[in-house]
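Let us practice reading a record.
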Amino acid sequence: MNALSWPQRLAGAVGASPVSEKVAAAQELVYGPIPGWARRTPLHTDVLGHSAHPPLTDLTLGCWTGASILDLAGGAQARSGATLLVAAGVIAAGPTSIAGAGDWAGMTGAERRIGAVHALGTDAAIFLFLGSLIARMRGRHSLGVGLGLAGNAVMAGAGFLGGHLALTHGTARRTRHSLPDPGNQPTD
């Protein structure tokens, strides 16, 4: 009997897929030198001890999730707030993507393939939210809501793969050094 859960098996299948390899090769072609450049930016630093990408995703996703909550529960009076949150998420997606590209530039094998599919999903979600913002600004609020909900659905799948990389594969780790345990410090 296989001890892996179906989400773990799904992530493993993405990492082993020849289609994922083609996605990764296409991204290398489309993005060219951007991942290598991103690796040299302050968004790809050792200061935190881990990648800046995961906390930046919290900002981006928090804005977009908040917008959808306002859309579904806030009524007409919440439209401007939801639009502001969608815009803030689109802006935050820039540095978030750069930090993720810097991480991806150093990946190989299954991690590279999973990261490529994750990036494809996040790119699609960014375009959906950009479309949502444009629709909202043109007074087509219902279309904007629909595009935002679709963007959140796509981000859920992409986020699963990103979380798998960071937590299961440890790709967000910057240093291999462990921090000292405060309970084992010498006393005076």
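A brief commentary: Residues 18-168 form one domain.
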